[in-house]
Model the fold of this input.
Amino acid sequence: MQKLQELAQKERDRQEQFESRIFCCSSTACLATGSISVQDAINQKIEALEQKDKMEVVPIGCMGLCSRGPLVKVSTKGQPEVMYQEVGPELAQEIVVAHQLGAGETAFEEHIQNNGQLKEHILPQDTPFFTKQHHFILAQSGTINPEKLEDYLAHDGYTTLENVLENMSPEEVCDEIKASGLRGRGGAGFPVGTKWHFGRQAPGDEKYVIINGDEGDPGAYMDRTMMEQVPHRILEGLIIAAYAIGASQGYIYVRGEYPIAIQRLQRAIRAAKRRGILGKSVM
Done:
């Protein structure tokens, strides 16, 4: 566990070195509207800068407003965080110019005022779509690279699992989940804590946790979004559930139509095994 904490701090220190971090949506919706070409254009522009090592491009999970994609969010020291909508390769390079090192808040605002194209594509953070939401499960989506374990660790990933294993019995975990009022999201709304209690009390030496990532409804996004954007959070929840009910194995069922979710889950599993989070000796 100490090694994971060291990895987390190392990643936080690495991120702190950058003056600007440009977050590009890499969800299915934005990929379908050209976010790969946007990322390529940003990388090309950064490479041409004199101080290119002060800017970083981060492929992230869904930022929510898929109809306005590709979405790009920029966090620059000394400037307010800005989100851009419907970004193409040409606009992407303008974004790099506007947020490059040394721009400063005043210079940035002046640049925006003099660039109608940039100003037109800014997505206000006070739009009701964002202000009327508060994310829990997807709190890290739109902030971390879903394919990078270190980024998840840097945002307190696996600390809940660590606390559970060090300080709670399986029964206490079941009780806490029951007290939380957490319910299933499949329609029936069955209490999760009750389900875990049933699993723990069920006879048999071999038990399993199955994560059902199947969605048959047209346009259903809830499972796919979690699997694509926060795969390590799914693994963390799986391990906690397994600990609570006494399971030794877990399965994740994913639709064949979700290739990105499959790819990211597989990478997350490999990374978790490599770091000793998953395996015969958890954590």
About this structure: The two ends are 6 Å apart (CA to CA). The mean pLDDT is 88. Residues 179 and 193 are 8 Å apart (CA to CA).
